[in-house]
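Recap quiz, item 2
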Amino acid sequence: MSDRELLVLGTASQSPTRERSHNGYLLRWDGTGFLFDPGEGAQRQLTFAGNSGHDVHRLCLTHFHGDHCLGVPGIVQRLSQEGVPHPVSAHYPASGSEYFARLRNASVFLETADLRERPVHDSGVVATGGFGTLEARRLDHPVESFGYRLREPDGRRMLPELLERSGVRGPDVGRLQRAGEIEVGGRRVALEEVSEHRPGQRFAFVMDTRLCSGVRELAAGADLLVIEATFLQRDADLAAEYGHLTAAQAARVAAECGVRALVLTHFSRRYPAPAEFRAEAAVEFGGELVVAEDLMTVRVPKRR
Ligand SMILES: [Zn+2]
């Protein structure tokens, strides 16, 4: 299993179908699990995929339409049932605090889990930690909606040939990485001499929205972009009316923003054939293209 991968829990917008569970995604990023927009049934889908409440560290909601949050009660109660020992942070649009309070207390249970509410008030940094920086950007939907982006800080990639030439070996490599400079055989070696710039990985999550600057800011340079493609282009007027994207729009924005791997999801039940989403998106986007299906996993592409 890769250290960084997306588990798709569900791919249906509005209401689940025979083939598709309500929307929901678990991003496993090293040791941290980000659960995005758990719709109804997310708890059971997690179980099907061999995961549990222990795998959830952060809950990120884009908005409070049911297909993005009706799974919250089950997940919240599961955390307590399992005795999850670590704190879990919950990020959601602050304007929907009333809804979150109801979801969190939807029925009677013994709350032992440490769930910390961190409502999002505006675009900006939401959290930082060993995983990097989690940011939110305001989107354009009939109700307040935020997309999220996870950014690993840029680093340095060590170059074995140059290390060897400079005589830096074994534990000295680690010392050099930590100190930025060491002395080997009477000569100072700087980290920059034996390494190159390594861009941090980026993950972006864009749900219900029309095209707007927030979409572009989130998608910019993403290694993996998960984005809603509720409609096909022939229904672009409906997409605009209800505040959604078409597969063509999502793919075009991904191409313009230098996205490497694109995951389309959140499909309207009016389209029985998912192949149409692929065909439409492939015209616009030449990178790795995934038309999401329930319970599939998608690796974050290797670093550039
Ligand atoms: Zn919505």
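The pocket of zinc ion is lined by residues 63, 65, 141, 208 (CB under 6 Å).
The longest helix spans residues 72-81.
End of item.
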